[in-house]
């Protein structure tokens, strides 16, 4: 048999393959095999939409409120829908036929989803069905699907139905139930094309689609303008059907005539044709990989799985300035309703800072544009400055729902939206990290610094002075460990708030020497004077941090040590802790068990504030208390364990994070990708195993590779330069790619060196 789609696919090391047709796994595969380009994300549902499938097409930033408690990402019409029927009602699909063979491949190098299925039917024998689809990375408004159909036993007349599936809706599985967030405004056949415009209900955002179908049989080719049409094929004759799709989701109403634009995009796409579109799409992906691939030798599984994590980060992120953050489940599922958490700044942002700073800036601009809303939140709660919402969508207001159903089906109140305040400092940290690594002073003076100062204003008004202790306190919060609510003096919150207050002062002092006008204008605008800054410094230095004097263990929050001393004794085969006997979600608050990295998170975000010994003591203590019930947790433990060269352990945590979605470790991959875990996984390799960090404004490379890794090769960006690094157990080679006279101070294996541009430097691991 002719192999149609094979010629398009990359080498095996770039393919995630599935060779089994499983209805139980289909929703998980839909998430794993999703396509996207940051403008739109599309779950990898099988074209015929089998029973139980969860179609999902999500346009970045298109949220709707109707019928939901809070704004949620709209599940928009699905454009890849393609139904093929043999006579006698035999639909090509698992419901009406037997599946003889079935394989799918996600080609991560080229951003393709490919499929081969052989069906057998009662009346017409066997059929070969193949498909290939992509959402263009070079033209964000274009997608294409090509389908090959061949009857293997008999001449058959097929009825084909294909347009854009409008029967989709938000399933709202763990929320209010199903909701349709759009209605159809226009649906028409326009010459050779078909056109659809829907509008979201609340904000009336138009989403417009145009499609054209081209059918090729042997040398004959024609445009098929009907949405339902017939094709007669002889035994072993193949029809190749290509559907070109253009779409626009128009958040900004002032744009041009959406219909005209959508049809124009479609015309350009069809004029270019399949091969050209594919070529420019694949070459856009090639560029992305040139800047972000990490080549690991000695661990092919990790290499492929890491690529899977990077692939999903790339398809969920704003490649152009779309005014969006990265949702907790990317753009490929309804989980967390597409909301943006601290995951975006602390977990995902670093990958972009070091591989594609333009995307990093786009992510930060999403927060900067919502500073007024953050000010409003602070004002309404009686605070100063800006206080960012724990969950954010389009408007920038707090969108954390007030309730949820737990695993046992019990309705519970959600308090994070009221109490998880550390997000404001996390966002400030994101601004700082970006500036530190890119030196993008224009952005920083215009936007980034304002966030840091406004966040400092917030913290200064948020703290309470405790006269007896002579310390500043932050009362009544939830820390990253969400098991304990209404806690006082969470170490994570207090320490990152203290960092925020102090760095604000340091930055003003340093930058005003060089940019006096801009800094004074900003301080005037924010009404920050010298007295306020002195106060910030005083508070930052005087915040209460609960630490046991005897053991040196930082107390997760005040009174934590008095909670029941329960420790984790065993883990399952994936290295996920098993809940100690007698502990349930209802009584966990009374114990020392914590949900996820909390104190350990501090060691990662603010590594210079803690000694090696302090980190080590705390790591081993909190390891026995951390349930890793959030997918954010394992990666952070992996990073810190690699710092102590406990590589056996670091690697286990790495695997947990690496495979969170590939192996559906948390059992909810069907609801979308764990975006924070993707970024965390990358950080284990970059910051952890490769030991790349900016410390004291100097680039440090202090590798600790897992024993069986032979070698790691990567490139990254720093202050507009490209740096390539090759690491093995004995040495690290570093090259700065820059114009001739550039130099860079770096510390590798503890040895400081000033390296010149375009020369290879090799450092020996002594
Ligand atoms: C975690 C949070 C995280 C959120 C979204 C929660 O389960 O505890 O830290 O921000 O999921 O990923």
Task: Provide an overview of this structure.
- There is one protein chain.
- It is globular and about 90 Å long.
- Helix 4 runs parallel beside helix 8, helix 9 packs across helix 10 and helix 15 runs antiparallel to helix 16.
- It starts with 14 loop residues before the first strand and ends with a strand.
- Strands 1, 9, 10, 11, 12, 14, 15, 16, 17 and 19 form a ten-stranded antiparallel β-sheet that branches.
- It has 766 residues and is an alpha+beta fold.
- The model has no long low-confidence stretch (mean pLDDT 96).
- It has 17 helices and 32 strands.
- Among the domains are: 264 residues, Distorted Sandwich (Beta-galactosidase, Chain A, domain 5), CATH 2.70.98; 76 residues, Sandwich (Maltose phosphorylase, domain 3), CATH 2.60.420.10.
